[in-house]
Fold:
Amino acid sequence: MITDYRVMASDKVRVEVFRRGIEAVVKPGDVVVDIGCGLGTYAVFACRAGARKVYAVERSDVIIAARQVAKASGCGGRIEFVHGDALSVELPEKADLAITEDFSVVFADPDTERLVSSVRRRLLRKNGRFVPESAAVCAAPVTCRNVYEKLDRLGASADKVCGVDFSATREMAMNSIARAWFRPSQLMGAPKRVHGVEFAAGTPFEFDATLRFRAPKTALVHGVAVWFDALLAPRIRLSNAPGAPRTLWGQGFLPLTRPMRAKKGAAVAVALAARRSRDRDRLWWQWEVTAGGVRADGTTFRSFPMSATSLEAGSRSHRPGLSRDGEITECALRMLGSGCTILEVARGLRRQFPGTFGSVREALSRAGEAGRKFGNLKL
Structure:
């Protein structure tokens, strides 16, 4: 785990732009909350920029290392590390500024929207600020034979390997959002802004747009490239656009199930949308490309192997009850809530579910897992 965080910390392009943005926005005496602080890099920047107090929120155990990083960087005294989920933690005071970069390669993601909404409502003062303050989703059709062939790597063998037929999975793969790194010369039209989000204003992440491009050359259109352009502070931007300084994000690639040819100067239309699912828990990306009278589309809805039963389980009127796994978790939480030790929880699980746990030792693992995940730990 720690190596992943060190890789993120080594992304100097991203980290340096955030440092500049934080220094430009933090005011002397500000209370700052760093959401998903990781190793605490941005919390240290905020502290050095003059914040009176920084609350660094992190749900994983990397927070232990972050505390050491802050101390070694001379900022341990003004940073309070809060171990927990930003969606539910409570702070001793409201913050003036929230810092987050918890967004995906294409930015528009329901988890990000839920997080920003919760932070704005629960953790920020009235008229509180964000870094970034806004972000725009941008897109363009793209020609990318190598990226496409890598994604459709079984296509050359007609989706068969050693006599096993994987053709049923192709539609799922070709309706997924992939990560790629494109050159500006691969874009089949000048980039266009699709949607913008103002963090403090609570702009919805959903959008529905139709974009029109003019092909700069004759080539196959393999899909749509998507990226974001974030405004961290006035005149300080961070973008993962093709041609921008390279970051770990790369760009998002929305593939077509069948590439289409576009002639130089021909019109290429792209319909792009992010629509909320019926249970409002997901954003389904949808895309449609038309060129030369040929049309192809895709949607992330098709990328998930779901049955009618699993779809029904998320509906508002469904009464799913608890699975055996849910009953075990409920039992463990009930005992933890009453003040039981992990060993007492394990013994209780063994008595309650003898068919699942053959011994107390087996139940200890599950009890410990519940304690680590849901217990009130002070790391």
Remarks:
- The longest strand covers residues 219-233.
- Residues 135-310 form a domain with the Hnrnp arginine n-methyltransferase1 fold (CATH 2.70.160.11).
